[in-house]
From TrEMBL:
Protein name: DNA-directed RNA polymerase subunit Rpo11
Catalytic activities: RNA(n) + a ribonucleoside 5'-triphosphate = RNA(n+1) + diphosphate
Similarity-based family: Belongs to the archaeal Rpo11/eukaryotic RPB11/RPC19 RNA polymerase subunit family.
Reported function: DNA-dependent RNA polymerase (RNAP) catalyzes the transcription of DNA into RNA using the four ribonucleoside triphosphates as substrates.
Native source organism of the sequence: Methanoculleus thermophilus
Keyword Transcription listed: yes
CDD domains (alphabetical): RNAP_L
NCBIfam families associated with the record: PRK01146.2-3
Length: 94
């Protein structure tokens, strides 16, 4: 199932992205991974109310495009998940 996102705001150094129908787990992991990027200044999940969709706010420095930072962080998370799945499959066949 595809994740639905909506770009709420985009400038040279800031992006606000709404994750429709998503819980906090992925957005929290993505925000944490974004903070590993030295050109990311702020990466935080916002949610007005518990029953509303979460929003990710990202600000960057040194000219780093915020959507590129988000894309790179998502790829790194995907890579970690793929490695975990590979290791679990290895355990399952042992």
């Amino acid at each position: 199932m595809a994740m639905k996102i909506k770009l709420l705001e985009l400038t040279d150094d800031k992006a606000r992205i709404l994750f429709e129908g998503e819980g906090n787990t992925y957005i929290n992991a993505l925000a944490a991974e974004l903070l590993n990027d030295p050109d990311v200044d702020v990466a935080q999940r916002r949610q007005a109310f518990k029953f509303t969709d979460p929003e990710l706010v990202v600000t960057t420095i040194n000219g780093r495009p915020p959507l590129l930072a988000v894309t790179d962080a998502a790829k790194r998370l995907s890579s970690v998940a793929e490695e975990l799945l590979r290791q679990v499959k290895t355990l399952d066949t042992a």
